[in-house]
Design brief:
340 residues, TIM Barrel, three-stranded antiparallel beta sheet, single chain, 26% helix
Length: 340
Amino acid sequence: MAHTALLWDKLDGRRVRCRVCERRCVIAPGQRGFCRTRENRDGELLSLTYGAVASLHVAPVEAKPLYHFLPGSRWLSMGSVGCNFRCGGCQNWETAHAQPDDARRDAQTLEPRQLVDMAVERQCKGLSWTYNEPTLWLEYTLDTGRLARKRGLLANYVTNGYITPEALDQVAPLLDAWRVDIKAFDADTYQRLANIRDFDKVLAAAERAKKTHGLHVECVTLVVPGINDHASQLRALAEWIVATLGRDTPWHVNRFVPHRDLSALPPTPVATLERAHAIGREAGLWYVYIGNVPGHEARHTFCHVCGARLVERGDGGAVANHIWRGICPFCSAEIPGRWE
């Protein structure tokens, strides 16, 4: 449904500038921004997806993936349509690349209170804004998040991180975790993967989420063969995480599965992921995980001090958690994250 948008400026000629994501689109009357979810109607900016829920599931927190935030907890996970990126290998392209007009027949309209009631009834720990880019749902996530807080629910964003500081500052007080994709560590590769070059703004948002707002942050890199799997790039990314977010920040290096425009590429070799894992550890990260490889040992959490296995994960999420009040029971080391 159309809803008055937040964070935009009036320009001459009834044009407007959107300030929700870092594209900061200038939109002429009757036109939409790059994401296609925001339209200029007679000099006023409207969100076209408020309340339009295209995907809705109860999922474990490990599916985000968030590995150091309440293992085994259930989250009401939802998404709409549209994205401010155009990733050629997008797994959720049916909704992320969809036009609001085309997707409306498949989306259900849910008021914020309905979502909150649903999360409570299904015994979820909180709300997860995911599947498409939640930044574009800013107004809806704010309204729903305020109600969720009153009911004792938590919330997280599963995001590409290309959000403006002003939008992040509005939504962060209603969030607890920030799960961000960092797709590469140079402009040319980011352009090839996501159609943006200024990836430093993704990095700046992750730093702001953690240092300014105190959110729990975990990073994910989908390792794509021949595109962002070079050792030098992976090392630079891992070193940035250590220096800026801290060595205790989990980094997930996930397997690419051929899809859409990148369907001619092979799946990421496990050996490549294991090399990325080793690079992360050599850079000083305490927790590096390998994702999308069922049964791999690097999906479990091991104490960074004594090496004991603390959280065991199966294909559906955590199956055992031995951390007690944030402490390793074997050596008493403090394990960063939120465990209870």
